[in-house]
Specification:
Blueprint lengths: L1 E9 L3 H9 L11 E6 L6 E7 L5 E12 L3 E6 L8 E10 L4 E10 L3 H11 L2 H18 L2 H12 L1
Antiparallel strand pairs: 1-7, 2-3, 3-4, 4-5, 5-6, 6-7
Length: about 160
């Protein structure tokens, strides 16, 4: 299993950073290989992830939020869906520093074989660099947004 972790300090309060991450639906805006993250049931506890693979292929999996401590920690894990399962998990930890927030993202992937495995291998090729770039994009995005923008985007996307 591959695992990566990266930490960044953002110049927004913890509630704003947490709200951006909460529905997970904003992830495609900072992770180019992630095409979509869409809620699959009532609320935002379960999501369907669609990821671009090699040669125009796509891989999909469902994930469930397994831990949600507002403004402190959000964690998710893939739901077992059989032979093409893309086993993965992620967590975001938020460190409240007043007007700034420390954000640590940890991701783990255990790619399957076959086409699904190739697509996930593309997604996790140099995973440390991808997580670092994603957090740099998150920092730029969240610092450019007003708190009202973040709340509205989260409400619309997670409804």
């Amino acid at each position: 299993m591959s695992a990566v972790t990266h930490y960044v300090e953002v110049n927004v309060p913890v509630a704003q950073a947490y709200a951006w991450w909460r529905g997970l639906t904003n992830l495609p805006s900072i992770m180019p290989d992630v095409e979509s993250v869409v809620p699959t049931g009532p609320g935002t506890e379960t999501t369907l992830w669609k990821v671009r693979g090699p040669l125009g292929t796509h891989v999909e999996w469902e994930a469930r939020i397994v831990e949600d401590v507002p403004n402190q920690r959000l964690a998710w894990a893939s739901i077992d869906s059989g032979a093409t399962q893309v086993k993965n998990a992620g967590a975001v930890r938020f460190d409240d520093h007043g007007q700034t927030t420390g954000v640590e993202v940890s991701l783990q992937f255990d790619p399957p074989g076959g086409a699904a495995g190739e697509a996930v291998a593309k997604l996790v090729a140099d995973p440390q660099q991808k997580v670092e770039k994603a957090l740099a994009a998150f920092k730029a995005t969240i610092e450019a947004a007003s708190p009202a923008d973040t709340d509205a985007a989260t409400t619309v996307k997670s409804a």
